[in-house]
Amino acid sequence: MLVEFKEKSVVIVIILITACLKLWIVFHMDGPTVFGDEYLYKEIANDYANFIIQTTNQYPYVYPLILGISFLFNDFYLVMKIINIILSSIMLIIVWKLLGLFFAGKKRLLGFLLISLLPSAYIFPKYIMSENLYFLLLLISVYIMLNLENDQRIRLYFLFGLILGLMQWTRYATLVLLPFYLLLVFINFEIKNNFYRLQFKNFKFTKLIIIISGYLISSIPWLIVSVYNDFDLRDFLGYPYSGLTKLTPLNPFLEWVLLYSFYIILLISFLLPMILIYIKFIKEKNLTSIELKLLVFSVITTLCLTYVSVRHSWLGSAIDPIPSYILGRYIIYIAYIWAILFLIAFWKTNFTINKNLLIITTMVTIILTLIGYSMIVDKEFFELSNYFLIEVNSDDVYYFAKDHIRAVIIIGLVILLGLFMSKINDKIKQGCYFAYIFIIYLITIATMIISISTPNQYDSGIHGINLYKAYNKFSSRNEMIDITISDTVMFNKSTASDLLRFWSGESEGYNVLNLNEINPHAGLFLTRNRYGETPVQTYSIDNTNYYIYELPINHSMQILKTYPSEIIADQDFNIQPDGNGAIAIEGEGFADTCIIYFNDMPFGKVAFGGDTSVSSLVPKEYIQNSGILKIQLKFETEYGIQIESNIVELPIKES
């Protein structure tokens, strides 16, 4: 009893630590970055919170209904991310329960610690996306399915049906899995005459009806929405979005199958040597019924979701068979299941007895991993976009694709190969393998945290929230606001429109323009250039400042002093490496694009020291004779207006 209490205490501490880390991550998210999905989930959630029946049929009701709670609070966006953290923390409780079907004591605790570090649990709370809920529901369904082999309570069958329904109305891809769920829940694997035999011991028509009843009850809210919006049965089930319709042409289909196959290999590359051991387990009948059921479920689910991903990826591209990014989110749903299968093989395997097999599986893993990196990361076989791997769609592979993590994985696998070939005892080999995977996960999470801590100029969330703040200051006094995005900002007008809609909840009241469409007489202007007047909004990304100005920009630029204040003709001063002299200019309203004019002739761009300070070389031909050197600064704003400073006269005296 005391041991069980200590184990549960450790589990609670791990869950709290991971929750705190996720909180730290989400607090560093200024705004959404997965434009369309996050905006739509937010809008549907807002409608449900206001008792409005939503009209979209691509995003079923369960996840946005939960998010609707967030609109009871002032900062709905933060609350949505906290809801995600709560869901992922509950998921870890289910992981603990699921591990209890296979392990006890230290094995269960170490397995839980390892799985608590899976990257997807830390990535998705940042995003307003249904994966946060689907991971939880999938693991609950698997736990109930396996538990029903020994626990025949009717209410569990009803709960199983209810969870399947909630999965279906969270992600339509569940539709391809439902037949296999209904089959596997009633199957037992028994060994007879040295063969695995399928047994339907638990099947009763009454139980099937109870499962279907649970499914139908969870379907009632979505059925109401469907009837209200005249959805047909296909739309109600999400048939067009499930991957079951419209087969793809064969050649691109096979290309995508190849890409996704190696994507999966990269996803589980460090687990693969042990997973391949299942070939031996099956041959030797060394698996219990629920272990074999979990393996069969994982293989079937991986195949089904790979097909959905392949179809989605192909149809997601209107022109090219390889679109700009991979749509692998369906596949990572089973990452937790494969991790549990790894742990089962890990604790079952005697490293000494199975030394030769482990050497072979590790060598195969190294080869497959290198091919996968060449294909997906290094783009050796396909002309893939630089955005083919992006965080939200391919989290584990995205982080493992970093060069230093790739090296860690390959070097680690080579070291494991050496360990398996050595004569050290099993416990040391097991400990080294476990430590290797633990370190991989820690490096992955550390890489993610560093990435979040140092946002780059493509971080649309930061741009979006600052644009909204600037827009909000003027929306009450203008019927329509033009918002222009400078071409110096890595942020297009389509993304800007999506994010303004996310924060404002409307698509009217503003026009987002490109630079060549600018109206210099009204609106807001986002740029990286600093002008003299006070901007409406200022923010910084990765040591780069961004400014939002109200148009028109009534810029005032003034030269107050020059250093030196006089020059001796044909005499050197402030000599620079090229032999010319240099002057410093003090004033107001300088811009980093200023051009200096000597005697009304443009010389070149100044060295920008800030709004009040610039410097420039002075060509020798201008100071050879006594007289006056006229100095002026000019620049052209990004919307074509010429800004000029006053002209100052620098005396050139006789030598």
Structural features, described:
The chain has about 650 residues and is of the alpha+beta class. It contains 22 helices and 17 strands. Strands 9, 11, 12, 15, 16 and 17 form a 6-stranded mixed β-sheet that branches. The protein has a 5-stranded mixed β-sheet with strand order 4-3-5-7-6, covered by helices on one side. Strand 6 and strand 7 form a beta hairpin. The longest helix is centred in the last third of the chain and has 28 residues, at about 425-455.
Provide a short characterization of the protein structure.
The chain has 655 residues and is of the alpha+beta class.
Strand content: 5-15%
* Proportion of helical residues: 40-55%
Largest sheet: 6 strands, mixed
Radius of gyration: 32 Å
Termini, distance in Å? 99 Å
Class from secondary-structure proportions: alpha+beta
Number of helices: 22
**Average pLDDT, all residues:** 82
Q: Can you tell me the overall shape?
A: elongated
Number of strands: 17
Low-confidence regions? none
